[in-house]
């Protein structure tokens, strides 16, 4: 019975194992290793994610360097890491859960599409299998990840929204130095918007994660196997790094307008909450077509450059660490 190419990585070579999990943890080995790899890559790439989100939601920055300079001037190094605790938990768990779901569904999807036939083009057959399995993984994980990502976005743009809409109220200095914790932000959102407020922008989050995850795994596996076949005689760490970086860059570029739409909707919710806290009237609801469907225009790609750089770095690190761990930890 054929199930196509193995999902992400094949079986471990026990001769190269540098550590062996206890028997009770072995079923969770891929999840634990994926979480660890994602934890490392998230810490490395988070400052660029902050710049990306601020560029998407605020037009006051003339360039990436201008955003970096002003963020550091007003908030110091901590400004680049605001909201990191939520993604350290959620992104790492989401990534590990997504890898686990993808790995679980891939052979089942192959059977559904091709049955027991082997076929003469396994690499081409692998593409739709990866896309469908990846989309299911991304869509499933989005239900868990959306509240955490919204709290991250809230933290990242909080001070910018305060300066833009609240600087004329009370004492600006006091207002701008007050930074709530992640837990406090969750409580604020629930208090003002209810529990469903944590899912602000969810339909765009779901669409983004489903499509991006489908592209992500398809591009990664196609890139890795193609590079191994064309340039290397055996599986290569270099092909893993290149394919990992390219999968992040291309998948993000394809779905970036959807991510911008999500960020703009969430910015409106943050602004509404802050104005409610100050006893101010809500701003008029923007009649922007982006709220109905992401329009492909220049503003929808603000922050793409830094996002592409971050995505290449983060996913190169993630797949490099994950594949190395899968090959050396039994």
TrEMBL record:
SUPFAM superfamilies, per database record: Mitochondrial carrier (SSF103506)
Solcar repeats: 25-108, 125-226, 235-328
Location(s), subcellular: Mitochondrion membrane
Entry membrane topology: Multi-pass membrane protein
InterPro entries cross-referenced by the UniProt entry: MCP_dom_sf, MCP_transmembrane, Mitochondrial_Carrier
GO CC annotations, alphabetized: mitochondrial membrane
Predominant subcellular localization, coarse grouping: mitochondrion
GO terms for MF: transmembrane transporter activity
Keyword Cytoplasm attached: no
Keywords carried by this UniProt record: Membrane, Mitochondrion, Repeat, Transmembrane, Transmembrane helix, Transport
Its job: Mitochondrial transporter that mediates uptake of thiamine pyrophosphate (ThPP) into mitochondria.
Family, as annotated: Belongs to the mitochondrial carrier (TC 2.A.29) family.
Protein's name in the database: Mitochondrial thiamine pyrophosphate carrier 1
Native source species: Scheffersomyces spartinae
Lineage of source species: Eukaryota, Fungi, Dikarya, Ascomycota, Saccharomycotina
